[in-house]
Amino acid sequence: MSYNLLKGKRGIIFGALDANSIAWKTAERVHEEGGSFVLTNAPIAMRMGQINELAEKTGSEIIPADATSLEDLENLVTKAQEILGGKLDFVLHSIGMSVNVRKGRAYTDQKYDWTQKGTDVSAMSFHKVMQTLYKQDAMNEWGSIVALTYMAAQRVFPDYNDMADNKAYLESIARSFGYFYGKEKNVRVNTISQSPTPTTAGQGVKGFDGFIAYAERMSPLGNATAQDCADYTISLFSDLTKRVTMQNLYNDGGFSNTGVSNEVMEAFMKAEGHE
Ligand SMILES: NC(=O)c1ccc[n+]([C@@H]2O[C@H](COP(=O)([O-])OP(=O)(O)OC[C@H]3O[C@@H](n4cnc5c(N)ncnc54)[C@H](O)[C@@H]3O)[C@@H](O)[C@H]2O)c1
Known about the structure:
The chain has eleven helices and seven strands. The protein has helices at 22-32, 43-46, 51-58, 70-84, 99-102, 112-135, 163-185, 200-203, 208-218, 226-237, 262-271; strands at 10-14, 36-40, 61-62, 88-93, 139-149, 188-194, 248-251. It starts with 9 loop residues before the first strand and ends with a helix. Helix 1 (22-32) crosses helix 10 and helix 4 runs parallel beside helix 6. The site of nicotinamide-adenine-dinucleotide (NAD) has 27 residues, from helix 1, strand 5 and helix 8.
């Protein structure tokens, strides 16, 4: 269903890799709501080719950019405004990667150049994106910027590894930049803390199947899907949430405020032989 919430709005969507990506679902929803946008991803991710399909479907252009490169970001922000015909109203940062996670290094045995790479891609890139937008004065008043995060920034999930620290940094950047962007330009900056979701990045985390099944049983409303996340993001891009800023917003079916659920307790008691 479309509510025309984003009619006439323009933006940039980072991170659509394939049809499972949160950014992919969000791009489809933004399109349905009447928004227009430029799609972007790292040049290396483009080679897999699937983003062309999304571009065609949504009538969008693609501009490759490595989100750690200021040069790429400057080019992206300039060109996006040219293509879309004006300043931007929304930006989605849907980017995450840890080399330590990828290579199976434990949290207590990190290779620090990998750690640094992950921090640059997953967190500092958010600052770089916003600083580039800010310096080019590329956002319209009351625009909205959203990045995606996970609750491991607040609580320990051992296998989330150094991504937990990256997410804590990302959420802090949202608050700090949100202050300046709010004061100067009335632009909102928020993070959405999403349930475990079966995407390429999600499935890269060790023990993901257990993780998602546990979260499903812990959450009164069940896990939020990528589609749910797209819907929530649309609301944050719309004019209906104008004074929501500098927040970390949970889209997790209630997981973050649940101590234990009856289902999880029952499964635990059964496994322990206390039937
Ligand atoms: N899947 C989950 O369980 C989950 C849960 C909470 C939050 N998130 C967050 O959601 C966001 C999107 O991830 P997803 O789950 O849709 O997975 P995904 O793998 O589909 O998306 C990750 C994207 O990051 C892009 N990327 C990596 N390095 C980049 C770079 N240098 N420059 C530009 N782009 C780069 C990838 O190409 C990819 O498109 C991430 O921030 C992730 O941490 C995911």
